[in-house]
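Hi C.,

You asked whether I'd gotten around to modeling the 208-residue construct. I have! Everything is below, sequence then structure, no commentary in between.
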Amino acid sequence: MTEPGTHDFRVVSSEDVYQGRIMALRVDEVTMPGGGHARREVVEHAGAVAIVALDENDEVTLIHQYRHPLGRRIWELPAGLIDKVGEDPVETARRELVEEVGLAAADWSVLVDVAASPGFTDEVVRVFLATDLATVDRVMEGEEEADLVARRFPLDEAVRMALAGEIVNGAAVGGLLAAHAVRTITAPARAADAPWPDLPTRFPNRRS
């Protein structure tokens, strides 16, 4: 038995189970501290970006979007998959902000990186802060985007909604709380091109 915190969880075998449009599933056999092996199911994901778009009145744009696994519409930040291999994440964020809510931003920074559910998936969402906004024409790419409802909320109200359980999307909750911290306690945001060590790569490389 190794000392706690020192074991090397080495993968001794890996089996591909499924590959779809936005995710893949594999099963890894991993060495455990007691000397045995354990099977770990891993959902591979392309990674995603989300955007806290704050206007000059500290109002944030949220979208009301149907999410089939939950069976209902929920409030979220504008967001999208990093589905172009090698694309700069901030460029993905710029595109999604235009497509989903018809906004462009002159200033960008990084608020938080959110591991969606690291017990079974490598999905990580980078949440950007976008300011100095301008309205532009939307460029809708799919049927779901045609059903989106966009609305601006005071940032304080959006934070209240998150704390009240009215906003449950993890990246939205984390991003809104981080934006509130940046605005109220001068917590520093990161540069738009800050390193992203947990950006998923396995599924994008598999698709390419």
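If it helps when you're writing up: The longest strand covers residues 103-115.

Thanks,
B.
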